Amino acid sequence: MEFFTDEYFMKIALQEAQIAFEQEEIPVGCVIVANNRIIAKSHNLTETLNDVTAHAEMQAITSAASFLGGKYLINCTLYVTLEPCVMCCGALNWAQISKVVIGAKDEQRGFMSKNITLHPKTEIVEGILENECSQIVREFFKNKR
C-alpha cells in the first residue's frame, strides 16, 4: 500500500481552496482521509448556499459521515487549509476525529486562539504548506478591498 504524506493531502485541500477562490468564496479547502484514502473533500460554500454554517469542514464532516455510515470519524484525518473556527472545532470534537492537520493559523477566528480544544484523543498538526495556505487567503482579501 502506498503511503501519502500530509503535504500530499494538503495540496488536495489547497485545490479545493482554489475552487472556492474562483467561486468568490473565502478560499478554505478541506479533505478527510481514512485508511490513506480520501473519503470527503470540500470547500467553503457559505455564499453559494447562503448559509453561514456551510464551511469547508462542516461540508466534509457531513460527507465523510455519510460515506462511513456513522457519525464518528475515528481513525480519520481532516486536512484543512485554514485553522477551523469555533463552530467547526465543536463539530470535529463531536465527530471524535482522530487527527486534524492545519495549513495556516487564523489568529482572529481560529479555535486555538480562543482556548477551545478538540476531542482529548485528537492529534493536531500545524503548519503544513503554511505559506501556500495563508497566501491564497491574503490574495482573496486583497482582491476584495
The major beta sheet can be summarized as:
5 strands, mixed
Mean pLDDT: 95
Overall, the morphology is globular
Instruction: Give the topology string: H per helix, E per strand.
Output: HEEHHEHEEH
- Strand share of the residues? 15-25%
Number of helices: 5
Widest sheet: strand ordering: 2-1-3-4-5
Report the end-to-end length measured between terminal Cα atoms. 47 Å
Whole-angstrom Rg: 14 Å
Can you offer a commentary on this structure?
- There is one protein chain.
- With 145 residues, the chain is an alpha/beta fold.
- It is 41% helix and 21% strand.
- It is built from five helices and five strands.
- The chain has helices spanning 6-22, 46-49, 56-68, 86-95, 130-144; strands at residues 29-34, 37-43, 76-82, 99-104, 123-126.
- A five-stranded mixed sheet has the order 2-1-3-4-5.
- Strand 3 (76-82), helix 4 (86-95) and strand 4 (99-104) form a beta-alpha-beta unit.
- Helix 1 packs parallel to helix 5 (130-144).
- The longest helix is centred in the first third of the chain and has 17 residues, at 6-22.
- The N and C termini lie far apart (47 Å).
